[in-house]
Amino acid sequence: MRILVSGANGFIGRALCHHLSLLGHSVFPAVRSLSGLQGEYVIRNKSSWISALSRFSSVVHLAGRTHVMKDKEQDSLRVFRNVNVDATIQLANIAVEAGVKRYIFMSTVKVNGEETFPGYSFKPDGLPVPHDPYAISKCEAEQGLFEIAKKTGLDIVIIRPPLVYGPDVQGNFETMIRWVRSGVPLPFGLINNSRSMIALENLVSFTALCADIEASPNAKDQIFLVADGEDVSTSELLRRIAKAYGNNGRLLLVPAGFIWFLARLMGKEAIASGLLGSLVVDRSKTREVLGWDPPMSMDNQLKKMARYDTVA
């Protein structure tokens, strides 16, 4: 299968291109500027996109503006729309013109919402409740893609992952690793929330399956929530990180209410929500529709991350 990957030099893109190559696919890593990725191809205008896309049956669109914790843009939603909506729709229309059959769009579980409550999980067919500009832009891009699908017959596959972790991870997960490795006692021993996450290798495995049209004909025009086979609390996650990195991971028994109080005083509610709140997804559709189960356990992915950090 001939597959083009946009945003190929990113955290997910590099791993996906490597995995697709191992599976024997012909991979075209599309980037905006040279980054040292093997076989990458710089595409800057519509004509070069059409020329490239005419040779491929599937596109995996990873390029986009990611979630920003401290966004300094005056009109953040406009900036997110320019990148995550307009560019996504433009590329999909070019893909149709070039004869591409399937377009896979990497969205986010934040389209479903920010938090779940006990006994409840997000589902692919649930009502979208995006809260911030990033999630709103991803939701609008999804809607635009399905409109194109109705008019043109282009296969659309939407993937909404929760937090993704793996070698070279950044953001909040990288921060937690630094906390654990520092050896400083952390006040999360009493946190009993539940969060779905997905190992990078699991996300890459599922995305590669969707990109292979022959192997996943039933993925056409579907929305999938993907996650590991287990959900964990923040305290359990920190203990597992500590074990993988050979650290004691000391956790203090501090009530969640007190942590929330301090977070509000410091203006850190968003960070506290990620650490103390729950976000659980129902991933059963991936098995029911495509027969897919995550091949990588959380503990094994964490061990690979620890080995990677040791070498790096």
General description of the model:
The chain is of the alpha/beta class and 312 residues long. The protein is built from eleven helices and nine strands. The strands form two sheets. A seven-stranded parallel β-sheet has the order 3-2-1-4-5-6-9, sandwiched between helices. Strands 7-8 form a two-stranded parallel sheet. Strand 5, helix 4 and strand 6 (155-160) form a beta-alpha-beta unit. The two termini are 33 Å apart. The mean pLDDT is 88.
Distance from N terminus to C terminus (CA atoms, Å) equals 33 Å
**Residue-averaged pLDDT, rounded?**
88
CATH class membership of the domain at 2-166 and 197-228 and 281-291? Alpha Beta
CATH superfamily of the domain at 2-166 and 197-228 and 281-291: NAD(P)-binding Rossmann-like Domain
Helix share bin: 40-55%
Largest sheet: spatial strand order: 3-2-1-4-5-6-9
Task: Give the topology string: H per helix, E per strand.
Answer: EHEEHEHEHEEHEHEHHHHH
Q: List low-confidence stretches.
A: none
Number of E-state strands: 9
CATH architecture descriptor name of the domain at 2-166 and 197-228 and 281-291: 3-Layer(aba) Sandwich
Q: What would you call the structural class? A: alpha/beta
SS strand fraction: 5-15%
Helix tally equals 11
| Major pleated sheet | 7 strands, parallel
- Radius of gyration over alpha carbons? 20 Å
* Morphology call: globular
Indicate the CATH topology of the domain at 2-166 and 197-228 and 281-291: Rossmann fold
